[in-house]
Amino acid sequence: MYVAQTTVSLEGTKIFINGQPTYSGTSVEGLLFNIRTVNATFDDTLGQVNWWDDDGSHPENDHAGYGQWQSSASASANTERFIAALPEYQAHGIVAVNLNFQGGHPLNGKPEIAAGHGSAGRRPNGHRDFYHNSGFLSDGSIDEPYRKHISAVIEACDRLSMVVILQLFYFGQDTVFSSEAAICAATDNAVDFVCSMGYRNVIIEIANEVMAGHFHHEILKPTRAAELIHRVRARATDRHSQRLLVTTSEAALLNSRQWTTEQIDAVFSASDLILIHGGDNIETGRVGDASELVEKVEFLQSRPWYRRASRPIITNESQGEQALDALVRRGISFGLHSIIFQTMFPPKWGIWENETTWFFRKVKGLTQPTNSDR
Fold first, then answer.
1. Where are the domains of the chain?
2. Domain 8-367 belongs to what architecture?
3. pLDDT of 15-70, one tens digit each?
4. Is 350 helix (H, G, I), strand (E, B) or coil?
5. What is the DSSP code string of 181-197?
6. Do residues 334 and 315 lie in contact, with contact meaning Cβ atoms separated by under 8 Å?
7. Among residues 212, 222, 138, which one has the least CA distance to residue 179?
8. CB 169 within 8 A of CB 206
9. Which of 13, 98, 148, 327 has its CA 20 to 30 A from that of 314?
10. pTM of the model
11. Quick check: helix, strand or coil at residue 333?
12. Are 133 and 103 in contact (CB under 8 A)?
């Protein structure tokens, strides 16, 4: 068993690491600034997409330069580069990263690959007709090489007193499962993995962007997602005598065709914390205090179950400086999402001049105690 150095816990609406609130002594005490880095463990074993780490022949991929993609060596190299960048993120106030056993959308930002466009939920086989990126096999067992990448990142974060939000399922890859029973088995196996390894810096996120239209299995939709939240908690408690923090993230939360109020209440009242997505929408003028993100926060905080037992609300897929400012004023954590930085593959890990640099500068400024804070 790995000997953990880092434990994440909650007290009310605040996040604690090793018994102390994050960013202690600052105006953002108890928040969890994080980045969406779900392709840190990416590995396509299907071999139909010509992935590359730019060798100079693809100027459209000018943010990376590591050589031609070769699974599984390139997958290991990608994870190693991400781990090497973790201290830089931490130095800028980032205390959490997001992983996913089934990755994210690696074709975002690649218009030359037509197969990657459109909703995975409308495709009978998701994205699995053209790439395979899953840490689970069809029966729900864990793929061993993928597990090693997940373990390497969790342990690197543990050594740096960082948290991992570990997502289990992604709507582009959920059709890998042969049945609903396989999804339940995958859930159990993920819990057993985290608990048996002794990891204490992990928050379980059942699925990335639960909504009616994304996933292919009913148990991964708003109607039944609470079942898996309860399953994780019971498995950790009954089999491992351990408490695992568990939740899921939403998409289109305020769209009644995607979520009913009853479903919102069932899923998030069952969650230890709440993960929401969104950000500034410059095109419609909904930015900052007027953003849909703020509307989601205010709606969730108005629910009877939240008023009885408040809990952290965290974005782990957001964008826009005005949105960040609006959330921080409300005591809500912000997590960066960027197509070039985290989603499109291959990413260039670390902090470098691009569309996301504002975020790291802002977070570093907010999380460094000033003389007046001390």
1. 8-367
2. Alpha-Beta Barrel (3.20)
3. 999 999 999 999 999 999 999 999 999 999 998 887 776 556 666 656 666 677 88
4. coil
5. HHHHHHHHHHHHHHHHH
6. yes
7. 138
8. yes
9. 148
10. 0.96
11. strand
12. yes
